[in-house]
């Protein structure tokens, strides 16, 4: 009974040490799983090149033409700020409501950061225009309404 | 559109009962008591680590089954006790700090393991003999290592 208890405690302690120390080290060095840290010899992600101005009027529209390198997930290993995460989400087509649903913080502040991210990425959104009877919303429709 | 109607009690919807109405301990109170117990265990482990470094520097096993003998050794060598406290404090800061730095650069794991190994070395010199008299050798070894890692696990807040 004493040996069984000792073996049980040994297994529990060994398992805890495995998950708390050994596995994180092996993962960081790529022996198992996915490494979580970046080697210093790897180049630091640079800022994106100035993108072309693109208007997005449709959620299914083309993505803005920005540099892909700086907006991939590895960047988040170095830049662990809310702004970086919002930029990645904006780049990947997340809408304002979707971002607000998952990011903690004041909605107004998050909205301001989303706008800053769009400006940085060169994403221009078309102004919301509510079609009102008799008031043209787009030049192409103006002739139809006359 | 479907509307679910529920009877109101004094203008408020009745609270949904989740189980039999028994029990007198508040969950928050139990949690706080458990956390206090963890912090007490942390304090005991810190004291044991310092004593382990003290006896490890002397190269003698710690008389954990004879507290009076232990007390006599401490009061007769206050300088060595101070050195043991300083060494253990330094190793603790290096161990905790290196692990935090390892989140950004995996090379800090090496320093973490060095600090941990150094502390384990002192504690092994102090506690191997008395522990192996009580438990099997494999459990004694793991207890010594866990005794150096558990304080970090309890003390450092994880976000």
Question: Would you kindly provide a written description of the structure presented here, covering whatever features stand out?
Answer:
- The complex is a heterodimer of chains A (146) and B (159).
- By secondary structure, chain A is mainly α.
- Helices cover 48% and strands 4% of the residues of chain A.
- Chain A has 6 helices and 2 strands; from the N terminus they run H-E-H-H-H-H-E-H.
- Chain A has a two-stranded parallel ribbon.
- In chain A, helix 3 (82-91) packs across helix 5.
- Chain A is elongated, with a radius of gyration of 25 Å.
- In chain A, 9% of the residues are buried.
- The mean pLDDT of chain A is 72.
- Chain B contains 5 helices and no strands.
- In chain B, helix 1 crosses helix 5, helix 3 packs across helix 4 and helix 4 packs across helix 5.
- At the A-B interface, helix 1 of A face helix 5 of B.
Largest beta sheet of chain B, briefly? Answer: none
Spatial separation of the terminal alpha carbons of chain B: 42 Å
The total count of strands of chain B amounts to 0
Helix content of chain A: 40-55%
Biggest sheet statistics of chain A: 2 strands, parallel
Q: Low-confidence stretches of chain A at least 5 residues in length (pLDDT < 50)?
A: none
> Which stretches of chain B are low in confidence, meaning pLDDT under 50 for 5 or more residues running?
none
Beta percentage of chain A is under 5%
Output mean pLDDT of chain A: 72
Number of helices of chain A: 6
**Strand pairing plus helix content of chain B: what structural class?**
mainly alpha
How many E strands of chain A? Answer: 2
By oligomeric state, this entry counts as heterodimer
Q: Write the element-wise H/E pattern of chain B from the N-terminal end onward.
A: HHHHH
- Discrete helix count of chain B: 5
Radius of gyration of chain A, whole Å: 25 Å
């Amino acid at each position: 009974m004493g040996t069984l208890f000792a073996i049980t405690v040994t297994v529990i302690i060994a398992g805890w040490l495995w998950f708390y120390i050994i596995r994180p080290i092996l993962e960081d060095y790529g022996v198992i799983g996915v490494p979580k840290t970046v080697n210093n010899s790897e180049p630091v992600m640079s800022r994106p090149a100035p993108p072309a101005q693109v208007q997005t009027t449709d959620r299914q529209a083309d993505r803005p033409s920005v540099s892909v390198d700086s907006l991939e997930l590895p960047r988040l290993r170095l830049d662990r700020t809310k702004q970086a995460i919002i930029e990645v989400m904006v780049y990947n087509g997340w809408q304002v409501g979707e971002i607000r649903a998952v990011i903690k913080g004041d909605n107004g502040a998050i909205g301001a950061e989303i706008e800053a991210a769009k400006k940085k990425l060169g994403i221009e959104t078309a102004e919301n225009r509510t079609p009102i009877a008799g008031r043209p919303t787009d030049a192409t429709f103006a002739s139809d309404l006359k | 559109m479907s509307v679910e109607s529920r009877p109101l009690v004094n203008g408020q919807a009745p609270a949904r009962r989740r189980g039999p109405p028994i029990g007198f301990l508040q969950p928050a109170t139990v949690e706080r008591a458990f956390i206090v117990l963890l912090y007490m265990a942390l304090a005991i482990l810190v004291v044991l680590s310092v004593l382990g470094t003290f006896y490890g520097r002397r190269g003698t096993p710690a008389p954990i089954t004879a507290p009076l003998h232990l007390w006599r050794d401490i009061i007769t060598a206050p300088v060595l006790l101070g050195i043991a406290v300083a060494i253990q404090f330094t190793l603790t800061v290096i161990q905790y700090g290196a692990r935090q730095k390892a989140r950004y650069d995996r090379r800090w794991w090496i320093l973490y393991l060095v600090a941990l190994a150094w502390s384990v070395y002192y504690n092994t010199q102090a506690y191997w003999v008395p522990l192996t008299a009580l438990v099997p050798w494999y459990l004694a070894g793991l207890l010594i290592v866990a005794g150096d890692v558990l304080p970090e696990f309890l003390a450092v807040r994880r976000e």
